[in-house]
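During the reporting period the student researcher (J.K.) took over the structure-prediction task from the postdoctoral fellow and processed the backlog of single-chain submissions. One of the processed entries is reproduced below for the supervisory committee.
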Amino acid sequence: CGTLTPSQVVHAPDSPEVAKILLNLRHVNADLSTFKGTGTIKLWKKDSVQVVRTAWTGARPDKIRIVIQGITGFPVASMAADGSWFYLLSYSQDSFYKAEVHNPDLEKLVSIPVTAGDVIALVSGVVPIRPYLSSTLMQLPAESGYVLSLVGERGVGIEKIYLDQARMQVHRIEMFTPKG
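J.K. obtained the following structure tokens:
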């Protein structure tokens, strides 16, 4: 505890303050069962960045389809998960991939440590909360809000949830692999 700053407080997972924040986050869009939307995704590959339009539809907790659109608006690729299977269809390469998995890890496809369940939660307006062992709630400088850091095994940070000053709305989420 000697290394903590005055604005940093460490909480056990069952801390009343952290429990209240997590309970509030779990209630956001809890009654939403189906969803659809459009947006953009940034894809990085080495030194290039590509912004693509996407459309998605799904049903919680485990069904989703994401279509990546080309510049013309026609589909380039489609990804889907139904709770048992993961599908990837590339229209441009005329290839199809199918794997039997419950909650597929998409890190090999999108280079970020997310699962299909995380994506479903995010696009349906729910904050994915990774299983954790301890937490730290810290006020950010200049009264810009708080960050709730969730820590897993061996003291490794697994997720950061950035909250507003009232600790009721999420501004940003960061998820980490064991390597950071």
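The committee noted the following: DSSP finds three helices and eleven strands in the chain.
J.K. will present the remaining backlog at the next meeting.
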